[in-house]
Amino acid sequence: xxxxxxNQCFYPDVISTGxxxxxxxxxxxxxxxxxxxxxxxxxxxxxxxxxSARETWRGIDIIRIPALGLGKGTKWRRCLxxxxxxxxxxxxxxxxxxxxxxxxxTSPPLISFxxxxxxxxxxxxxxxxxxxxxxxxAVALGWLREDSLVTRAxxxxxxxxxxxxxxxxxxDRFMQERIVRKGIPADSIAVVPPWPHDDDIRYDEGGRTAxxxxxxxxxxxxVMYSGNHSPCHPLDTLLAAAGRLHTEEKIIFCFVGGGSEFxxxxxxxxxxxxxxxxxxxxxxRTELAGSLxxxxxxxxxxxxxxxxxxxxxxxxxxxxxxxxFLYIGPEESHVSDLMQRFTNGLNVRSARHGAVAEVVAxxxxxxxxxxxxxxxxxxxxxxxxCHTLLPQIISILEQVADKKPPPxxxxxxxxxxxxxxxxxxxxx
Length: 428
Known about the structure:
The chain is α/β, with parallel strands linked by helices.
């Protein structure tokens, strides 16, 4: 079976969507499917980093799409970057042969529309793996007005993708509810959470020691936020707590990752002369277990308006290294669902946004208790294991692809041939 995967990020990019798509591609290729990936020629967080235009990696055919590489400094630069990438991607798609199944993710926003359009024009099934919802996220961020002409147009593209999809994969029940409110039947949506990268992410005592030594964290209590720094995960409350605890020499706040808000964290620390804040870039996947294990208390953050729009993927890697964490966000969320269901497998403190004094109290109490490891829950680990969830997604995709494909539009199919005419029989 020929399967096309569409997403801006793919191996060797370490951002979450790229890592999950890489796992999926390897899983599909391992089952004998012919997998093609369309991704960007530039790194997600480091646009100066370039990749080959075409390569075969572990049996996967990777086609890299040109990108402007303007970075994420301003909204307009990001929008121009996204628009250019989508145009280049559309052109490249027009030269691809028909696929049995096209799977689209959500980076850049609305690339799913191209996947749905490609399947419509060339035939084959289409699956939409929703990692976040746009333009809803942009509206929640205040970048777009809900009633603007642009927003309505983008909502039209999103709804086309959702309605055209033979199957939609959402990350949690809140995302499913949002999609249903757009007029999509609930039975067309499968809820499958993302997974930690099992083979790499485990508590690593040696990696913990090495990471802490390399960054001057030995004998410190490390509060860590690791992952994408975006407005969807507002860090104001955590940074305010760091400011209040700046005289506590034992406590260090370590921010690891990248994204549009990463520079703001560095600027905040520099402006307030905070010596207890350390900022580090995304760590290589091979060293991720060590960096995550280095934390004594992880922090998971979700903005109140973004419930069902984005998913707190970092919680799974935190669970994988058996670390306690502090959750800052709305009372009702996927994280709170986990807290209620797996009470014996999680060591979690929680607070609302703006509750700086409460966050400070939680951190001080955790520091006083000293480094602890969560008792790993077999149920929790098996439920969110890659070895459990990845086969579920592959099974869903194979079931979708096995269905009789809808007809393509013959006028626009580049491979269509005119039917042969039979010679007329003579009446004589």
